[in-house]
């Protein structure tokens, strides 16, 4: 009968198809992999493909930058700046200039963020001033010049806070007003050599100690005299302990690391930094209970039951991190600076050991994963927020401390850790190039 | 022909699903390997060619990777995958049906019925037969006979009436019968 034959055809088709599954096709996976929207994938591929070129370019860049820092411009060497000698200073009382002899004597070597004292003929202290002098080179105009910030104090009150160029101070008549006396600073002459500006130990220098905010305009204004190829540049070496929380291991971990950061200015209050650090991270053995799916093979249905189990997890990871950040100096005093930073990090694991053990009814299932070196490279691994404190304790050296929160944008490592990291740094900063 | 094996619902499998939900490519590849055969076997029933089936399968996997959440572990994962593949195939039908409206049916072939020919049909041949069916018949036959949809459900999904669905199913069976017997006759001549 025709109908029954068609039913038999249908039955045969169902019978055969129910048992049929085609073999896995790697080509189909390749097609799909290209469609999977993983934003970092092409970056990762590109990074791996051109890693040697990138490393070479980075090395050449660092060498070029270093050369620029230590050899700003050959022409500039010909424009020597000669420090002026001591000279008289004139006071202006009741609007009339009256010559009096004062000497300007810096308490510490000139061109530092230093103080100097003005004395009258009887060597009585008349006025003290903080002076911040900065050497600057305008390579385009082929001019070498300085600016000096003179903060005059009288009776511990700041009366003038303004930027003057040395030329202005030397050639023009400037008036410095104090509550009790007016000075017409006709000429400040400095000794020929910085050695002459030794600290005057007989005078206790009053330094400003309060923090001040940077001018808002300094963030956006182009400062011609601020050349990123001249500095001030900073290199810092730090030790960085870290507290981590891994969502997948459900535990806290502690890691230790160290690193190096190079920093250069964009504005006087903005800098950009890049670095390289190493971290060794350990998550101690964590024991917890969880419900796991259990398939009862004696039951023909597809239903999955959940039963109690004990989970034991531990992990050990080592990785390199390349952070890049932009920093904003928002508070500073004579010796201290507080910066806020934000940036991103790339990460490359070179050792991963992850152990997972699940115990159900005294039956243990243990999985230990040892991933290959460099198996996981994340070009855009984390978004970083940092708060930095720096304290100057010598001409070139600063104490560097920072606290950073690192929010990871992608799951990390073989077992897809979702990490939150609180990173601390303690180290030394060395200033090179032009002084700040 | 490979006999289908049930994927094991182990702790590691749950971890793979978790990692897939976080976009871990390795876990996605693992899941793809594990369910490729299952998904392709469903896709092939709706397709006109292997490339077409591969397209439906990969679209289905994309949906699976995008929608997979840890709470879905508690559900019937295989049944969920199956629904996604069928829905993807139906979406494909809706996109493509404009180009597949021309259907011509000849009278059923009056070749004597030899049931032994059915036993000789293997999976690849059956897939080819189904692939050769006009699109609307292929979908109606697969949804009704294999996936267990009712005619009302088919009508709703394919945008036809229930009676049209019944008619399409009858025609699909006739065409299959014709194709099987024709190929049988061809074999005999050779």
Please state the average pLDDT score of chain A: 66
Query: What is the overall number of helices of chain A?
Result: 6
User: Which architecture of the largest domain in chain A would the CATH scheme give at its second level?
Assistant: Beta Barrel
**How much is the radius of gyration of chain A in Å?**
34 Å
Query: Could you say which overall geometry of chain B the principal axes of the C-alpha atoms support?
Result: globular
The Cα radius of gyration of chain B reads 19 Å
What percentage of the residues of chain B does DSSP assign to strands (E)?
Answer: under 5%
Query: Helical stretch count of chain B?
Result: 9
In the predicted model, the low-confidence regions of chain A spanning at least 5 consecutive residues are 72-123, 131-138, 142-209
Number of domains of chain A: 2
Task: Tell me the span between the first and last alpha carbons of chain A.
Answer: 101 Å
How many angstroms separate the termini of chain B?
A: 26 Å
Question: Which two chains form the greatest contact, residue counts included?
Answer: A-B, 48 and 61 residues
Helix content of chain B: over 70%
Q: Please identify the top-level CATH class of the largest domain in chain B.
A: Mainly Alpha
Key attributes of the depicted protein:
heterodimer; A: 436 residues; alpha+beta; Porin; 2 domains; 10-stranded antiparallel beta sheet; 5-stranded antiparallel beta sheet; 6 helices; 19 strands; 16% helix; elongated; B: 190 residues; mainly alpha; Rna Polymerase Sigma Factor, Chain: A; Arc Repressor Mutant, subunit A; 71% helix; globular; disordered N terminus
Notes on the protein architecture:
Chain A is α+β, with helices and mostly antiparallel strands and 436 residues long. Chain A has 6 helices and 19 strands. Chain A has helices at residues 2-18, 26-35, 39-49, 51-70, 166-171, 217-220, and strands at residues 90-93, 96-98, 103-106, 113-119, 125-138, 143-154, 157-165, 174-177, 182-185, 233-239, 242-246, 251-265, 270-294, 305-332, 336-360, 363-371, 377-392, 397-408, 419-432. Mean pLDDT of chain A is 66; it is low at 72-123, 131-138 and 142-209. Chain B folds into 2 domains: 11-98, RNA polymerase sigma factor, region 2, helix turn helix motif (Rna Polymerase Sigma Factor, Chain: A, Orthogonal Bundle); 103-189, Arc Repressor Mutant, subunit A (Orthogonal Bundle), CATH 1.10.10.10. With 190 residues, chain B is mainly α. Chains A and B meet through α1, α2 and β13 of A and α1, α2, α3, α6 and α9 of B.
């Amino acid at each position: 009968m025709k109908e029954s034959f068609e039913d038999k055809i249908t039955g045969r088709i169902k019978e055969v198809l129910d048992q049929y599954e085609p073999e896995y096709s790697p080509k189909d996976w390749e097609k799909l992999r290209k469609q999977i929207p993983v934003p970092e994938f092409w970056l990762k591929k590109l990074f791996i493909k051109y890693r040697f070129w990138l490393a070479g370019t980075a090395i050449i860049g660092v060498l070029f930058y270093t050369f620029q820092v230590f050899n700003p411009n050959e022409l500039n060497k010909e424009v020597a700046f000669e420090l002026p000698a001591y000279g008289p200073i004139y006071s202006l009382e009741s609007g009339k200039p009256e010559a009096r002899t004062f000497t300007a004597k810096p308490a510490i070597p000139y061109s530092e963020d230093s103080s100097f004292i003005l004395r009258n003929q009887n060597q009585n202290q008349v006025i003290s001033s903080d002076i911040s002098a900065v050497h600057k080179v305008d390579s385009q105009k082929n001019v070498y010049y300085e600016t000096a910030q003179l903060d005059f104090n009288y009776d511990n009150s700041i009366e003038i806070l303004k930027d003057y160029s040395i030329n202005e101070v030397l050639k023009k008549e400037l008036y410095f007003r104090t509550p009790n006396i007016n000075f017409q600073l006709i000429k400040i002459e400095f000794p020929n050599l910085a050695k002459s500006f030794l600290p005057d130990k007989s005078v206790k220098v009053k330094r400003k100690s309060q923090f001040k905010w940077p001018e808002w305009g300094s963030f956006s204004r182009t400062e011609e005299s601020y050349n990123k190829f001249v500095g001030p540049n900073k290199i810092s070496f730090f030790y960085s302990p870290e507290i981590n929380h891994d969502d997948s291991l459900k535990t806290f971990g502690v890691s230790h690391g160290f690193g190096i950061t190079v920093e250069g200015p964009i504005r006087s209050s903005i800098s950009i930094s890049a670095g390289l650090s190493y971290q060794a991270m350990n998550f101690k053995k964590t024991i917890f209970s969880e419900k796991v799916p259990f398939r009862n093979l004696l039951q023909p249905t597809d239903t999955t039951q959940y039963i109690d189990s004990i989970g034991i997890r531990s992990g050990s990871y080592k990785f390199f991190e390349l952070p890049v950040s932009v920093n904003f100096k928002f508070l500073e005093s004579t010796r201290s600076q507080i910066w806020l930073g934000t940036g991103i990090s790339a990460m490359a694991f070179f050792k991963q050991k992850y152990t997972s053990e699940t115990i159900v009814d005294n039956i243990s299932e243990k999985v230990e994963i040892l991933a290959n070196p460099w198996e996981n490279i994340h070009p855009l691994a984390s978004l970083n927020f940092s708060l930095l404190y720096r304290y100057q304790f010598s001409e070139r050296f600063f104490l560097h401390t920072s606290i950073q929160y690192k929010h990871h944008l992608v799951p990390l490592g073989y077992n897809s850790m979702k990490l939150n990291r609180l990173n601390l740094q303690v180290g030394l900063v060395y200033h090179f190039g032009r002084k700040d | 022909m490979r006999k289908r094996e049930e994927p094991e619902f182990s702790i590691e499998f749950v971890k793979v699903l978790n990692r897939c939900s976080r976009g871990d490519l390795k876990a996605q590849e693992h899941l793809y390997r594990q369910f490729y055969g299952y998904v392709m076997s469903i896709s092939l029933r709706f397709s006109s060619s292997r490339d077409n089936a591969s397209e439906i399968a990969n679209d289905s996997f994309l949906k699976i990777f995008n929608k997979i959440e840890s709470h879905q572990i508690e559900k019937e994962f295989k049944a969920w995958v199956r629904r996604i593949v069928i829905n993807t195939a139906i979406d494909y039908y809706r996109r493509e049906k404009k180009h597949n409206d021309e259907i011509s049916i000849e009278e059923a072939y009056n070749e004597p019925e030899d049931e032994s020919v059915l036993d000789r049909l293997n999976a690849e041949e059956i897939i080819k037969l189904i692939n050769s069916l006009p699109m609307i018949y292929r979908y109606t036959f697969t949804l009704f006979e294999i996936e267990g949809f009712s005619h009302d459900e088919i009508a709703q999904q394919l945008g036809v009436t229930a009676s049209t669905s019944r008619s399409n199913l009858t025609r699909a069976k006739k065409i299959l019968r014709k194709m099987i017997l024709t190929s049988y006759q061809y074999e005999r001549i050779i």
